[in-house]
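Justification of resources, computational component.

The compute hours requested in this renewal are based largely on the per-chain cost of generating structure records like the one below. Each record pairs the submitted sequence with a full structure-token output. That output is archived, and it is also reused by downstream analysis tasks.
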Amino acid sequence: MSKEQFKEFIKDKPYLVDYIDDGSMTWQKFYELYDMYGENYDIWKKYSNKQKTITEYLSKINIKEIESGLEKASKALEIISELTKPTETNPINVPEELKNINTFYGD
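The structure output for this chain reads:
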């Protein structure tokens, strides 16, 4: 069996990566099984049944990191809100005679 055939064989078996990730298998071991038994052997049934449960996924989530990220995002939004908030300008005390631009020296 060639490496190319093995690569084609594992393309439609993404669940094998779970065994690599948890350290129970290596690609070398999977290749050796493939080389010895081929594609149609019952050995592959053993590996196709592994499914991660919700608790396995949830156990990998770091709540502290999520909270920290949300706090940072909230602070950033507050800063942006303050920066984009329209400001009230104090009107300059302009004398009445200068308010009307058409009036010049009493004309």
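The first helix runs from residue 3 to 11. Residues 83 and 89 are 15 Å apart (CA to CA).
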